[in-house]
Structures are given as structure tokens and as C-alpha cells.
Amino acid sequence: MSGSPKYSSVRVGALYAQREAAERARRADERRARERRRAAERVRIAQAAAARRERARAEAARKEAEVTARREAEHAARRDRAQAEQSRADERGLEEVRELVAEAQRSGVRDGIGALEGELAALRVRVARGERLDGAVEVLRGKAVGLRATDAGSRTDDRVHVLAALDRRLAAAPDGAILDAEGHRRCTDLLGQLRAASAPDQQVRFEALLGTAEHALDRHAATIAQARETAEREVRAERERAAERERAAEEERAAERERAEAAAALELALTEAAERLDAVRPAAQGVVNTAAELGAPDLADTIDDALRAATESLTARRPGEALAAVADLEARLPDAETRLDELELADERRRDLVAALRDAMTGEGFAFEGGAEEDGTFRLHFTRPTGATYETTVASEEDGTPVLVYRVDGEPDVTLHAAQDEAVCDTTEALLERVHESLGGDDGFVAGEITWDGKPPGRRAKPLPRDASWRWTTP
Asked: How many CB atoms lie within 10 A of CB 303?
């Protein structure tokens, strides 16, 4: 009999069960309180994140308003400068036209003068209002030149007057030497020849040169007008190019703002995810460590995987994944802590059973030789005065019911010797039953029937499971 493992299931006593139920309720209250604190912390973090986003939005709006105001001021300044330059150019052109009209009047022209003066006055009013005249000045200049040209050919008797008028025409365009250098040199040369031919005896030559000079001045004026128009077109084209560059720059600034806003949003989301993870990381790591210690690797791995997924997403700067991973960890934690509490209660129960068993066996004369814990299973070693050895294992069945397994060596149906040295014959079963009676009863543990392979049927023996299967299974 001594070599056959003995087995007995164990249940907790009524008072012990009451204490365990009270402890379970206390832990449940603590879990609910923790979850309320976590929920409040999540709300605080969410509110802080919303406040940061609002501040970032307001700051971006403020900067955008500043940039817009500065850009509009720059545009207005450029527009005002361009308008002022154009107004000055138009004023110069109108003054040149006025000189041409005045010269036509001095030359004796009367027809069309009033109409030209009316158009000139109207254009001056438009310039004063800041309007663009575009080509209106050159159109009016052409009309003024035409007035002079129709009447000048018959007034060669006063050559000094004619020469002075031609000089004024050449001088009427101060920028002529720049805009039409070749024409300006030719007109200057012809006026010099005309002046040399102004003697009374050179009437025919003077008349011939006068026509050539007037034609050259007309051509010079037309070339200047064309050059001015070309310059104005170039100015307009440059303004359009500048406007296009400004539009492109604005598009780039808008894209840069979008990139900056996206980067800021990413940082804010990462900050929120990191704060939420920091709020639950200690608890999650505690579950991982304790579950591993209590022999529940599946629970430890589940929470460790969730914790690692959140950490890796943050490290990789993927805010969407990080927030989702943190939310998953937060959702898993309450159930994990519930299971962990049950694991800890079961561990305390096993340790209490180990302590009660050790006291009971030493009370029956056993000597405790040491023990060890492995994966939630406790193995205790005892010896009797006879030299028999008992290895006692505290394990559990698959449904979590505690079991005691005894492996006895050197006990051939035990013979005990009392202190008075009178022989008392007893069986191993009876000895272990006395041990079980000392496990605490209602205030501790109540052991069931001892059974082993080959126990007589009359004792209603319960078959002993295979030796290798007796390991503690945590709830």
C-alpha cells in the first residue's frame, strides 16, 4: 500500500468561504473604484487634448490672420505704388499732349482744338480719380500730332517760329532719346540741317527739309508711342507674372500650412495616446508580472501583447493605430484584473491549505523536510520516526477543486508506537484521515474521502487520475 499514491479532494469550510466571499467583494469594489478613476482620467486627458487642439487651431487662425493682413497690406502697397507710377506716367503723357495742343494753337490751328482740350480735361479727371488710362493718352497724342501736321506746311514765312515749334515737338518726349535713340538722332540732325537752311536765299531747301523733318518727327513720335505701349504691355505682363508667382507662392504657403497643421495634429494625437497609455501602463504591467508569477501565461501574454502593440505604435508615430491599441488595452484591463483577483484568491487558498496541511502533519508526528512551488503546484516532504517518507502535493482538478496527493515510501501499513511503548496498529489511511481532521473544518478546509488505485470497492473508492495529470489549474 505504501507505494500507491493516495488522493483526496478538498473543499473550503463555510467560514473560510464567507471570508473569501467578503474578500472577493472587497476586490470587486476596488476594481470598480479603479475603473471609475481611469474613466475620469480618460475624460481629463480627452478634455486636455481637445483644449490643446483648440489652442492650436486658434494659434493657426491667428497666424493665418496675421499672414493674410500682411499679405493684403503688401498687395495694397504694391498696387498703390503701381497706380502712383502709372498716374505719374499718364500725367507726363497728358502734359506732352497739352504741349502739342498748345503748339498747334500757336501754329494757327483752330479746328478740333476745343474737342482735344475737352478730352484732355476728361483724362485728367480720370487720372485724379486713380483710373488707368491704358492707351487713351497715346490716342489723344496722335490726334494732337495730326492737328499740327495739317496746318504746319503753309507757315514757313516765320522760320524762327517753325524751328522753335519743331524743337518743342522733339523736346515734348523727354524719354525719346531712350525709347527711340536712332530716331532721336535723325530728328536732331534734320533740325540742325533745317536751321542751317533758314537763310532767306535757301527757301527751296528749307521747304524740302521741313517736310523731311516733320515726317521724321512724326515717325519718331509713333516709334515712341509704340515703345511706350510695348513697355506698358511688358509692365502688365510682369504684373501678371508677379501675380502668378504670388498665386503659386500662396498655394505653397497653403500646402505648408496644411503640412504644419497635419504635423501638429499628429503630435497632439500622439500626446493623447501616450498620456492614456501612461495612465494604464503600471496596472497592465502589474497584471503581466503577477499573472506570470501565478502560472497564468495566457493572461500574461494577452496583456503583454496589447501593451506592446500600443508601445510600438507610439514608437512608430502612428497615432491612429496607437489610439486604437491603447483603447484595446483599456478595454481588456478590467476583465484581466477580475481574473487576476481570482488567481490571487486561489493562490492564497492554496497557500492557506499548504500551511494548514503542514501544521496538521507535524501535529501527527511528521517532520517537515522542506518543500517547493512549481507552476502553482506545491510539493511538501515529510518523514516519520519510522523512516517512512511522505511527498504531499497540493494541486487541483480541472474544475479547480483542490486536491491532495500523497506518495508514501517505506510505510507497509503503519505500525505506531505510543510513548508508553505499547504497540498500536494503524493504517496509512487512518493516519491521513487524522491529518485531514486537523485542517480546520468550517474555519479552514474539509478533506474528502481518501482513495487510491486498488482500494476495496466497499469503501466507495474514487479512481485516482494518472499521476502526471495532477497539476494545479488556476481559475
From this structure: 23
Note the pLDDT tens digit of each residue in 87-122: 887 787 788 778 778 777 776 777 778 888 888 888
Nearest to 4 by CA among 454, 460, 472, 331: 454
Look up cell 484521515; give the residue: 433
Q: Give me the mean pLDDT over the 288-292 stretch.
A: 93
Q: Angle at which helices 159-171 and 203-293 pack, to 10 degrees?
A: 10
Interior/surface letters 278-301, b for 16+ CB within 10 angstroms, e for the rest = ebbbebbeebbebbeebbbeebbe
Q: What is the predicted pLDDT for the residue at 456?
A: 66
Residue with grid cell 517736310, as numbered in its chain: 211
Long-range contacts of 228-231 (CB under 8 A, 24+ apart): 228/93, 228/138, 228/179, 229/135, 229/138, 231/179
Closest CA to 207 of 188, 193, 189: 193
Distance, CA of 267 to CA of 265 (rounded, Å): 5
**What gap in Å lies between CA 190 and CA 117, rounded to an integer?**
30
Q: What angle do CA 178, 183, 185 make, to 5 degrees?
A: 80
CA torsion 113-117-119-123 (nearest 10°) is 150
Q: At 168, list the grid cell.
A: 518743342
Q: What is the mean pLDDT of the chain?
A: 83
What is the rounded average pLDDT of the residues 20-44?
A: 94
